[in-house]
Design a protein that fits this description.
This protein is an all-beta fold. It has one domain. The chain has one helix and 18 strands. The chain has a five-stranded antiparallel beta sheet with strand order 3-13-12-6-7, with no helix packed on it. Strands 8, 9, 10, 11 and 14 form a five-stranded mixed beta sheet that branches. Strands 5-1-17-18 form a four-stranded mixed beta sheet, with no helix packed on it.
């Protein structure tokens, strides 16, 4: 797994909230992209941020129309798979044991049989990274094999309207810039006026 660092320079006249997220691959059902990390970048300053690219399976619930809460997670490696059972009598979701054996380097989550109309339809599952919060999520359905590809690409944008775990809109994603890390795992990012970014290897 990679260790990644961004040196975030905010060269505007105001403090900004910087959002980092990844994009899910379309599979069974809709994949939703969520704010993974929010970094407060003071104006005219340099803010370093480092993380380790450690993946995890996540389960949680949708809250309102635009936010997803992560309730539990299990660390995972590319190629791992896990079973998730849902008991709608108690509204509990439980993990089985994480095991190798997924397809190629993909992550696989299999759900057991349950009555999807027997309880909340806000239960969800997905993939997380580092701080064990969702970054890609989808609704839980019974007896489905969900496949998540490792997500090597990150995107960044400046916005004061979102928090970690919030669903990103198509409109806001159009303002995002792609982060392509070199072998060193370091990038220098400069935010200027009108949400213009200058991105260079660190």
């Amino acid at each position: 797994m990679r260790n990644l660092t961004i040196n975030l320079g905010n060269y505007t006249s105001i403090d900004r909230n910087i959002l980092i997220y990844q994009k899910g691959r379309e599979g069974y059902g809709a994949m939703f992209n969520l704010v993974w990390r929010k970094i407060i970048a003071p104006h005219n300053s340099l803010t370093p941020f480092t993380w380790e690219e450690r993946y995890c399976f996540c389960i949680g619930k949708k809250q309102g129309n635009t936010h997803f809460n992560t309730l539990a997670s299990r660390e995972a490696q590319p190629g791992d798979q896990v079973m998730i059972d849902v008991d709608y009598r108690s509204s509990e979701m439980t993990f089985g044991r994480v095991e190798p054996g997924g397809r190629n380097n993909d992550f696989m989550i299999t759900t057991g049989m349950f009555n999807p109309t027997g309880g909340s339809n806000d239960d969800c599952l997905g993939l997380g990274i580092d701080n064990k919060l969702f970054n890609v999520v989808t609704r839980i359905q019974p007896a489905v094999n969900y496949v998540f590809a490792p997500l090597p690409d990150y995107y960044i944008l400046a916005s004061d309207k979102f928090n970690e775990g919030d669903l990103l809109t198509n409109e806001i994603e159009q303002m995002a810039w792609k982060l392509e890390f070199p072998a060193s795992g370091r990038l220098d990012l400069q935010l200027h006026l009108e949400n213009h970014w200058v991105i260079k290897p660190g």
